[in-house]
Amino acid sequence: MSSHASPDDSPSxxxxxxxxxxxxxxxHAAGEKIAMLTVYDSSxxxxxxxxxxxxxxxxxxxxxxxxxxxxxxxxxLEEVAYHTRSVARGNRTAWLIADLPFGSYQESREQALRSxxxxxxxxxxxxxxxxxxxxxxxxxxxxxxxxxxxxxxGLTPQSVHALGGYRIQGRDESSAMTLKRHxxxxxxxxxxxxxxxxxxxxxAAEVAALNPGLMTIGIGAGPQCAGQVLVLHDMLHVTRGKLxxxxxxxxxxxxxxxxxxxxxxxxxxxxxxxxxxxxTY
Length: 281
Ligand code: KIV
Known about the structure:
Elements (H helix, E strand, L loop, with lengths): L10 H5 L5 H9 L4 E5 L3 H9 L4 E4 L3 H4 L11 H14 L4 E5 L9 H13 L4 E5 L5 H9 L4 E6 L5 H4 L9 H16 L4 E5 L3 H10 L4 E5 L7 E4 L1 H4 L21 H13 L12
Helix pairs in contact: 3-5, 6-7, 7-9, 9-10
The structure holds 3-methyl-2-oxobutanoic acid (KIV).
């Protein structure tokens, strides 16, 4: 049975050096796009790593994708740590990011540190947290203690009720200004990476231009980000129902899951995904 395959028998992962923060910064400086996907288990982690995905994200989207919840809010730190351990076992070379779930970092910098330590000990290389300027102090606190941080602005799903639903952010001038200010504060605080979710592509491009050292990772934020992320089950066409327009079904032209993931990596790298006509706002 295939589950008896040796974990160390892949020539493709043997060929790739581990993706480090230093390597990601080199890629960014050289204009090479960063390909990121969410993942929650060991088998998919291995497949994605071997297909050349640069960054694996154990997103709190696992609440919706794996658990069938209607939002990410019920996801606990222990659950993210569990899935991070699983992903870490399958991964060989990709940069591994884990989401700090709702309620695990908002209380204080110390709470954020304790939660981040738990995820780093589970195998994460970086933690991701949602939120604007208020979280800059937390980001600085974590970065000063050796924990790389990815920020997350725009549509921040943990605030879905405050935002009034899953809707585009930063459309009017005042909210765009606020987002740009928050991005600058988070970059100054030491965030190395920033997910920009569901914002107009012009705004994402401005954030990237104003913060050249910051690796912006877009999801519904246009092609001018340093990289792209999608939820794995969305791009593999496993998710049912109406999907946001920024999702492309990579299974449509692929001969299997491996091919779909490889197409995603290729099209992010060569700039064919996202398509400004189809996947952006
Ligand atoms: O939880 C998640 O999967 C995420 C991505 C959608 C960026 O935060």
